[in-house]
Design a protein that fits this description.
Order of helices and strands of chain A: HHHEHEHEHEEHEHH
Order of helices and strands of chain B: HHEEEHHHHHHHHHHHEHEHE
Helix content of chain A: 25-40%
Largest interface: A-B, 39 and 49 residues
Structural class of chain A: alpha+beta
Number of strands of chain A: 6
Shape of chain B: globular
Helix content of chain B: 55-70%
Number of helices of chain B: 15
Largest sheet of chain A: 2 strands, antiparallel
Largest sheet of chain B: 3 strands, antiparallel
Shape of chain A: globular
Radius of gyration of chain B: 20 Å
Radius of gyration of chain A: 22 Å
Strand order of the largest sheet of chain B: 1-2-3
Number of strands of chain B: 6
Number of domains of chain B: 1
CATH architecture of the largest domain in chain A: 2-Layer Sandwich
Strand content of chain A: 5-15%
Strand order of the largest sheet of chain A: 1-2
Oligomer: heterodimer
Number of domains of chain A: 2
């Protein structure tokens, strides 16, 4: 294939090449992945702290912002942690958290529970504890988007989970091998990364926020589980599957 | 009294040793900065920043003022953080306030400012100069009480020059490599860095002399440190060249052993003195 038919003067070429970054940034705004989040009703209230935080107040009091955890995470090539900034929507609570490490992008850079940052923290802000005792957050599956709940067998999340079988409950039924994450989840977010659905079907909320929304989430879960065949068929084929198909077309990222 | 001719001969001998300590000092400063920069290309000899770091992935080190702030903020004692302060305390029990002169990268930045400073310098008021020790202790205690009140290490987490320098470097690299980072934190740290440099342009070393509580904490070690700068009163000709070059303006020419809390052990007085007489040098305690 030749591009000889494209005739450009030097000035036009330079103009276009200067405009390209601008255009590409506009494009990234257009795609707006925010609208493809799982569980859109739940807005994240807290930031996900690194593993080893036993008590949030003690964590704030002891962290000096030295950046050992961030750099250790970078040396381990996970790059999950980054210092948190002030956000206007969360006001004063974000000012208190300024500069403290948190897991920003769980879709691309989740924590993998290597437990290196608590081991190296010089101030004891992150305490070296067992993987099972970590309390970063709680992963919630969007039952309307998960393949396992809509007539497929996927199991990607349970395979990615560093804690394995203890975290997942499976409800085998006619609608697939339905995974459910129980409260032993520590919220590392590896399942968020390895979910094959565009925009992921799993959302991680902090333990504090989970206490608030737990009843609502369990009610919804029990309702879907106890549905009759006909209701479920309607739900899956008329509501969920079109949504899943739409998300299949998102080219969201390249695996790193 | 030494005859002028004698001085001349001394001068000829010591030309090779001119700026000896200054060059060693700069080399050590750059080596430590390099070791910290190597962590971003996954060579982990020193990981972290000058506030707190991990040496060879086993020995954790923590700045003494940062330790004090965390103790005041958390109001508890943890053996973990105490273990990481011990190597630093031992190091500076030997070297005194050598951190400021030999390790802190801001000494390098501030001395780069020196040439531009000529037309901008404003002399600090006399009141400030006379009471600088009291004021700087008050500032350090202010930060400690603030961190005790709001349970956050205020200085180390928000305002510290060391934290902000390394945060800016790391986040700049993260931005370059398209890794997750917050642009506002980067801009804040970078802005703080710029403001330190601009502040230093107008008031030379005022940060080191009066404000910086990190250096103030290390300064206390000057009183008990094993290594000190001593002036040989027999050979000294009272030329006061050392007073002129001293960054911290502590007037070494009227002290025998420099146990001043402001001395940063930079050795500039020794270098200058070696041009004229060799009456000043680093000496071990009681020697």
């Amino acid at each position: 294939m030749s591009y000889n038919h494209i005739k450009l003067t030097r000035r036009e070429f330079l103009g276009i090449s200067l405009l390209m970054p601008l255009l590409s940034s506009c494009k990234s705004v257009q795609t707006n992945l925010e609208s493809f989040e799982p569980l859109p009703d739940i807005r994240l209230e807290d930031r996900i702290k690194p593993p080893g935080v036993l008590n949030e107040e003690q964590f704030r009091a002891r962290c000096t912002g030295c950046g050992v955890c961030i750099n250790v995470c970078h040396v381990m090539k996970y790059d999950a942690l980054t210092p948190s900034s002030i956000s206007l929507s969360r006001g004063i609570s974000s000012l208190v958290d300024f500069g403290l490490p948190y897991v920003k992008n769980m879709r691309d850079f989740p924590c993998s529970l290597c437990m290196e940052c608590p081991q190296h923290c010089p101030t004891g802000a992150l305490m070296p504890i067992a993987k099972e005792d970590v309390k970063m957050g709680m992963a919630l599956i969007d039952l309307g988007l998960c393949f396992g709940w809509n007539g497929d067998v996927c199991l990607s999340c349970s395979k990615a989970c560093p804690l394995g079988a203890s975290v997942f409950d499976f409800y085998n039924g006619e609608w697939g091998n339905q995974p459910f994450i129980n409260e032993r989840c520590v919220g590392c977010g590896l399942c968020v990364k390895y979910c094959p659905l565009g925009g992921s079907a799993i959302k991680v909320v902090s333990k504090r926020q989970y206490e608030k929304i737990r009843n609502q989430y369990h009610k919804n879960f029990n309702m879907v589980l106890k549905m009759s065949m006909e209701e479920r068929y309607n739900l899956v084929y008329n509501k969920n599957l079109p949504e899943i198909m739409a998300r299949g077309r998102i080219i969201e990222r390249e695996y790193r | 009294m030494i005859q002028p001719q004698q001085i001349q001969s001394n001068n000829a001998v010591s030309k090779s040793s001119y700026l000896k300590y200054n060059i060693i000092r700069r080399c050590i400063m750059l080596i430590i900065l390099m070791l910290f920069l190597l962590q971003i290309v996954n060579i982990n000899i020193l990981v972290g920043s000058l506030t707190g770091s991990v040496f060879l992935s086993y020995i954790s080190l923590l700045d003494i003022f940062a330790y004090l702030e965390t103790v005041f903020a958390s109001k508890t004692f943890t053996i973990l953080s105490f273990i990481s302060v011990i190597p630093i305390i031992i190091l500076y029990l030997f070297f005194g306030r050598a951190f400021c002169g030999w390790i802190c990268p801001f000494d390098l930045l501030f001395s780069l400012n020196e040439k531009m400073r000529i037309f901008l310098t404003k002399k600090p008021s006399k009141k400030l100069v006379n009471n600088k020790k009291t004021i700087s202790f008050l500032i350090a205690f202010f930060f400690l009480t603030m961190s005790a009140l709001i349970s956050i290490p205020v200085f180390t987490n928000y305002l510290s020059h060391l934290t902000n320098l390394y945060r800016a470097i790391t986040l700049g690299y993260f931005a370059f490599m398209d890794l997750p980072f917050e642009i506002s934190v980067f801009l804040f740290s970078f802005g703080m860095l710029l403001s330190f440099i601009v502040f230093d342009l107008f008031s030379p070393r005022l940060w080191c002399k009066v404000i910086c509580p990190v250096g103030r904490t290390y300064g206390v070690f000057n009183k008990v440190s094993i290594l000190t700068i001593k002036r040989d009163t027999k050979t000294c000709i009272q030329c006061r060249a050392c007073d002129d070059v001293c960054y911290m303006e502590i007037k070494p020419s009227n002290k025998e052993a420099i146990r001043d809390m402001d001395c940063i052990m930079c050795g500039r007085c020794i270098d200058t003195c070696s041009k004229i007489t060799q009456s000043m040098n680093f000496r071990l305690w009681r020697k």
